[in-house]
Model the fold of this input.
Amino acid sequence: MIARRQFLLFTSACALGRTGPLRAQTQPPAKVYRLGFLSAGAPIQPSPNLDAFREALRELGWIEGRNIIIETRFAEGDNRRLPGLAQDLVNQRMDIILPTSTPAAVAASEATHTLPIVMTGILDAQETGIVRDLARPGGNITGITQISIQLIGKRLSLLKEMLPAATHLGFLRAPPVLANLISTFDRISSAMEAAAKQAGMDVRTILALGADEIKAAFARPEVARIDALYVLESPALQVHRALIADLALKARLPTIFGIRLFVEAGGLLSYGSDQRENYRRAAFYVDKILKGAKPGDLPVEQPTKFDLVINMKTAKALGLTIPQALLLRADEVIQ
Done:
């Protein structure tokens, strides 16, 4: 009887010993989060902004394929596709959606009021009505905003410093194909007209969406009568930045932009925040939210540093002499 009792105790101990390892082997794997990247642009490689975002995620411990998956959706310059793409990401049950332009952020905010949204590349989040308060955004949206509208006057002052005799300014932008962006573009246009008037210039707005419309826009007679061209930094135009730079050069038009990508593609001058750094900062928001923070409790960040970039190769091709004082203030001069 004693021997049998000892045998039962032995077999029970063996069973318990096996149970621990078996339970450890059957533990569910760590969750793999899914992030929806929503862009109005095109899947062009290399992609400096997206690469900067991925690099920052890796530094924070988020490794693609291991604990996070990035699903990309690109409207390829056609903002009309954004609502459908945003809804697709919602239907695919993303854990976070990352819209990278004002139209993309609007589309994402309309597609969901519950999934966390981390925005970047937004013109002016408060001015455009995407959030009501930068310090306390509330709801499901936070992230990084540019302050592009407020910088229009500064950019025009730089343009006048370079071209003091300029009196006729062209303003190239995409039309607001999403109805709820009409008021946003109206505010941008009003700010442009006010800044141009203060700089002693009149403004002629040029609307174009897609390569064919951009080519047609440059062929209009009124383009021959403008002294310089201001291009709005929307992804719908970023897709065609090389085309815009080439057409402007052929038309002998100095160009000014809000982001350096256009200048790297052959534009003349840009003044604005570093987009790569904005994308890196967006990764910090993603990290905080995946670790439990609520989007509405995270203040929206505004850039505090702005870079002046000048393309000297383009200036020489246009026969322009850049004032020395302007060159000395430039953060980068592309030769």
